Amino acid sequence: MCECIFLFGRNPKLSYLELASYFKARELAFKPIARFERACLISFPQEFSAEALVEELAGTVKIAKLLFSCNENELEERISSADLYEGTKNKIMYFIDVINASSSVREFFKDAFKRQKLKAVHKFVAPHILAKKLCEHVDIIVIKNNSKFFVAKTIACSDPHKFRERDEERPFVEPEIMSSVRLARILVNLSCTKPRATILDPFCGIGTVLQEAMLLGYNVKGLELSPERAKRCTENLEWIKERFNTSADFGVKSGDARRLSDYFENESIDAIVTEPELGPLLKKLPAEQEAKQIVSTLQRLYKKFFSEAKLVLKPNGKIVIVIPRFRTKNSKLFTINMDKILHENGFRIFNATENLPIKASVPYLYKEEWHKIERLIYVLEKAPK
To answer: Pick from 140, 63, 68: which is nearest to 98 by CA?
Structure first.
């Protein structure tokens, strides 16, 4: 039995949903024990590769093995007796991530290293930077939850430079329209689909979702209305295949997502993962009439898309889709009538945390400070006949 803390990034609830979906798709046993503001404590009955896992989960920043939990009056003594460093070198660097507790907790670790006669230098740089220095280092997470402390030692850390590499070094980028690489990977994992399955993005743009799906071991298909973008998408995916030596298959066509069944056979797709057309690029919040007009146009597009999606998806196939929500100048909200679309086309909400002791909500509201359009992330399942 192993207990680990998963430390999440900017969207912890979405990251927890991603994690649960990833494990469910691969039929890996796990049990969430406690969820904190930015993290979750999870128990595993089996061994797993933390390094491989943190590479595949886009919302997880660190995975740390729980050393102990205790009350505040026991904390200093428990830190003093904990096995913080297992190496043989006398000089090390260390990083302490303190959550919901006083930064003075770091002094307990400083004293513990001194008692072990280690020349331990505290650093404020991120752990993946420490790792790149190729020096001996220790990364500790301390979380205070109510009156209890949880202390864990990091065993794997995400490297944000790898996301940046896949974003900036590919042949074509279109930052004004594309999803972030990190969000694209989260969306793929939310599909709760087994690797080697076939994932379709019917609004694929230059292929951000498809490239992340390929790197996770899925075969992918893309559809893009613009022939020029479809060509750029193909070149990006060829670059991914060569650069990262993936064996995943891909195919990209130029076509209309409202006519999916013209391009793909019935019940041939395991999952659809997409950020579709979200309306015009907005530089400021729209007036009420403008928002109504945008929503009306998108409602017609999505209605036709879902009527086609149900044809090409396999029974119990999943759709992960980003749906826009518009906040107007007078603070009113307008969005697509998804209940009507889902009812008409035989889809239902899918939630990978439904039977877990700790749950996350679907749809999930995804909104960054710079977004003029709010986004609702839906995870859906095609109901059996």
So the answer is: 140
Beta bridge partners of 121: 93
CA 335 to chain centre: 24
Provide the token pair at 295.
Answer: 């929503």
pTM of the model: 0.94
Q: Which residues contact 269 (CB under 8 A, 6 or more apart)?
A: 198, 199, 200, 221, 312, 313, 314, 317
pLDDT digit string (tens) for 262-291? 999 999 999 999 999 999 888 889 999 999
Q: Answer yes or no: are the C-beta atoms of 360 and 351 closer than 8 Å.
A: yes
What are the structural domains, with CATH classification, of the chain?
Answer: 2-158 (3.30.2130.30), 163-382 (3.40.50.150)
pLDDT of residue 46: 86
Residue 352 half-sphere exposure toward CB, CA atoms < 13 A: 29
Contact indicator for 170, 191 with CB cutoff of 8 Å: no
